[in-house]
Structure formats: structure tokens, C-alpha cells
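ARCHIVE CARD
Drawer: 12
Card no.: 0347
Subject: one protein chain, sequence and derived structure
Cross-reference: see card 0346
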Amino acid sequence: MKIAVVAPSCALSRDAAAQVAALAAARGDCELVIHPQCFLSDGHFAGSDRERLAALREVMADPTVDAVWFARGGYGSNRIAEAAAADLPDAARGKSYVGYSDAGFLLAAFHKAGLTVAHGPMPQDILRNGGESAIDRAFRWFAHRDAAALESDLQPPAMAFNLTVLAMLLGTPLEPDLAGVDLLVEEVSEHHYRIDRLMFHVTASANIRSIARLRLGRVSDVPANDPVFGHDEAAIVADWCARAGIVFGGRADIGHDAANRVVPFGPTQS
């Protein structure tokens, strides 16, 4: 299993790259190739839009690559997502594409284009507390489609997104068809009032209202509201689901942490 790492948003730290490469080498079931683009810098981004797109398209077109692993989140993949999913090379269709957070823009675009994608841990997660478990989970899914790496209560077809990314996808050419989908969302570093505002927007969408159910992953690093908002994230999400006639399916085991689990998009868990 040859896995190519590219950074469609922000640069991968060299420390994270070295640690993940060592874990891959010790396994024996994964060959990890970290594209040099991962370490470029152009302001906020891991290289210019042109450089990030070129690296992604390069590994997509490489017939020796079995999977493409997005290096980290941050911000920026939306700037190249539509171009990345256009005029796909034949070799792109035989690969798996994995990431989460900002990489959700690419997951949506690639799934819509018919590629195999999954929400799941990324190389930069090795630097989190307990990060080795996240990386091991990703490798087990890449190499063996290990069901133990999956979120345990999926009802396929499923999709998973950061809530802000999902809100930004709505109304764009990248917006996925969500009819009948088991939709999982998570969030990080947003005030409760902003989560409330995001849910207002998301649940107003007819596409969102067509889902089978909505489940809430972890919402971490929530800044203090002033004044206190008065409702936590679970109450906020449950309330907006009730207003919109959406089934709220409770909590899900995904989030910006080392416990983040794999959610394959589509009708199967393979």
C-alpha cells in the first residue's frame, strides 16, 4: 500500500512528518511518500494555489500511488478543490482520499466526482496527545479497511464534515447530495453563539433537510461566551434539528483530537 501525503491547505511540520514516516516504516504494510510540497510556505499556505494544486494532481495521476493522505487542516483547500476534481486522470479513480477539517472541501468535491473518500485522521495529528493511536487508526483503514477504525454507529450512506466547512459548501458547485445520508458534524474553536448561527444556516437548507439523521461529534476548545450563551452544543444542535424536522441521532465519535474515527463516504463501509 503506497500512500502519498500532500498538503492542500497549510504546511506539514517536519517533526510530524518524521514521526509518521517512522511509524509507517515500522509497520511493513504501508509505504509512505511525503511530497516535498508539504513543507512549502506562501503566507498562510503550504505553497501557492498553483503549487498545492500541482502536487495534488501529480499524486492523483500517479498509477503507483494507492491512496492520497491530506497532511493537515487549517484553511485553503477550498481554493483548489473545484480544479482538483475537474478532468480527472484515469489513475485518480483507483485511490482512496483521506482527511478531515478543511480537507472536507476536497472530500465533498472528490466524492461528487465519484472517487473513494473518507473522513479520518491526518499526519499532523501525530502531534496531538495520544496522536500515535490516530495515525495507527488511519494506517489500519488504508491497508486493511479495518472495521475497528470506523465510527461505530454508522448507518451508510454516511458523510462527515466540520460544521463550518459544511456550511460553506452549501450553495456552491461542491455541495454534495445529502439525501438519505447519515450526516456527522464536528467543530473546534467556535463560540456557542457561532455554532447556533451555523446551525441556523445549515438546517435551513433543503438538501440538509433530506438527510436520514444528523449526529454531533465533539465540539472542542469552545471560547467563553460573554454573556454566557446558556446552551451547550448538544442542546443547540438538537434544537435546530427539531425546528427543521431533522432527526437528531445523538453524539458521534469524531472531532479535532486523537480519538477521531474514520467515516467512509458512500453506501458501504469499505
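Annotation on reverse: The chain has two domains: 2-147, 158-251. Residues 105 and 238 are 25 Å apart (CA to CA).
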